[in-house]
Amino acid sequence: MAGGVGPGGVRVGGPELRRWLAWTAAVAVGGAVVQALPVVTASGALRRRCWPRLAGVGAASRIALTFDDGPSRASTAQFLRALEHADVRATFFLLGILLDRDPGLGREMAAAGHELAVHGWEHRNLLCRSPAATYADIARARDAVAAVTGVSPLWYRPPYGVLTMSALLACRRLGLAPRLWTAWGRDWDTTRSPTMIWETIAKDLDGGGTVLLHDSDHASSPGAWRGALAVLPRLVSWAQERELTIGTLGAHEDMGRRRRPGCGAGPVLG
């Protein structure tokens, strides 16, 4: 028979090797599929219909206002002033690498009554990261937020809204609940005017929804945050006209409940 015997007793070039290679390939493909399965939640319409809790659907009398990609002294501080003027509190999903540069800004945000949550240490697509790297990224960011606020954060939102199985398992271990959004402004592009941003938000926004905007241009076009800032007064007026309360994700989801949410409370994607 052609071929010799390799490590582990596998006959090189024989049927044993071919079976072993086929099995290895099947395992690799299966693992990749399992890892990527939660990516289906990136579809906003599907997420709202099948996983409303993950989408951030909460009390119908409220709107949760959330921001991603900060904190940045140049931009986030302006959002804080606008929110103070409107008497609104929001949830900020922070990048650990930016919080580490300016922990004082994080403390100012918490002192103003805003909720600080985890967006990861770096803004990188999780599909390109190993399970170990994913866990390390989320854990490091969680610890940075906890160090600034003195309490463990509740929420996690992945960069680009792309969840993986590794991220969900990390959330379960770290006591974080993954939350995405029901409406967003696609406000990372400077070619989009405040009117365009608002129209994109409004088509999916209703009582019980969660809005995503960006308070930093760390992962977007330089200065893109100005469009989101300009939209805030319109969002506040829209909510007031409908007698809806704008607030943090925590208040939105846990109104009338006094237990801490987490990945262990119900289905991971529930």
Structure explained in plain terms:
This protein has 270 residues and is α/β, with parallel strands linked by helices. Helix content is 44%, strand content 11%. The chain contains eleven helices and eight strands. Strands 1, 2, 3, 6, 7 and 8 form a six-stranded parallel beta sheet that branches. It has a two-stranded parallel ribbon with strand order 4-5. Strand 4, helix 8 (165-174) and strand 5 form a beta-alpha-beta unit. The protein is globular and about 70 Å long. The termini are far apart. Residues 20-34 and 256-268 have low confidence and may be disordered.
Order of helices and strands: HHHEHEHHEHEHEEHEHEH
State Rg.
Answer: 22 Å
Helix content: 40-55%
Main sheet: strands, sense, barrel: 6 strands, parallel
Gross morphology is globular
Q: How many individual β-strands?
A: 8
Q: Which residues form runs of ≥5 with pLDDT under 50?
A: 20-34, 256-268
Helix count, DSSP H or I runs of 4 or more residues:
11
Q: N- to C-terminal separation? A: 56 Å
Summing up helix and strand content along with how strands pair, one would put the structural category as alpha/beta
Percent strand equals 5-15%
Mean pLDDT: 85
